[in-house]
């Protein structure tokens, strides 16, 4: 599958946010790092092998919210995250990977357009920027910082 059109689509969306896409590129091809308020937003175009041997391609957008090493994780926290999931829109949801709680979104790239990429950036950024403050007050969340931001 040719990934260049999808890379270009993400870079166009980053440009629409008023950022230089080259400044936001991650270390690996098909990855970008953005900031919205206090939220770090990771964007990836991911080629993944399917069970039948074909390669699928996915658009993934995520943002770390809670560093589970930095707090005392509790059943109360996990229950609250699941309850919040029911309130989130656009396929955004909390998940856990490598001892971080993330807000994330993933879908196949087929049919992806500029409006959806921009809406996903906004949802992930806005939700993370809001919920990291809410959860920090309750659980003492600590996260890392990244340099590129958009409004």
Commentary on this structure:
- This protein is of the alpha+beta class and 151 residues long.
- Helices cover 36% and strands 30% of the residues.
- The protein has four helices and six strands.
- It has helices spanning 4-16, 21-24, 75-85, 114-139; strands spanning 31-36, 39-49, 55-67, 93-97, 100-108, 149-150.
- A hairpin with a 2-residue loop joins strand 1 and strand 2.
- Helix 1 packs across helix 4 (114-139).
- The longest helix is centred in the C-terminal third of the chain and has 26 residues, at 114-139.
- It is globular.
- Rough shape? globular
Radius of gyration: 16 Å
Largest sheet: 6 strands, mixed
Number of strands: 6
Counting DSSP H or I runs of 4 or more residues, the number of helices is 4
Q: Which structural class do the helices and strands define?
A: alpha+beta
End-to-end Cα distance, whole Å, is: 33 Å
- Beta-strand portion reads 25-35%
Percent of residues in helical segments? Answer: 25-40%
Average pLDDT taken over every residue: 88
Low-confidence stretches: 144-151
**Helix-strand topology string:** HHEEEHEEHE
Brief description of this entry?
The chain is an alpha+beta fold and 151 residues long. It has four helices and six strands.
Properties at a glance:
151 residues; alpha+beta; six-stranded mixed β-sheet; single chain; 4 helices; globular; disordered C terminus; 6 strands; 30% strand
């Amino acid at each position: 599958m040719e990934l260049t059109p999808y890379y270009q689509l993400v870079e166009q969306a980053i440009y629409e946010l008023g950022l230089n896409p080259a400044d936001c590129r991650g270390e690996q091809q098909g990855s970008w790092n953005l900031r919205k308020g206090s939220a770090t937003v990771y964007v990836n175009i991911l080629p993944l092998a399917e069970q039948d041997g074909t390669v699928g391609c996915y658009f993934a957008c995520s943002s770390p919210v809670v560093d589970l090493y930095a707090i005392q994780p509790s059943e109360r926290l996990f229950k609250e995250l699941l309850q919040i999931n029911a309130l989130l829109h656009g396929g955004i949801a909390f998940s856990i990977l490598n001892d971080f709680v993330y807000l994330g979104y993933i879908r196949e790239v087929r049919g992806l357009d500029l409006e959806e990429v921009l809406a996903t950036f906004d949802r992930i950024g806005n939700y993370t920027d809001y919920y990291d403050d809410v959860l920090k007050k309750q659980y003492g969340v600590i996260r890392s910082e990244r340099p590129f931001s958009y409004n």
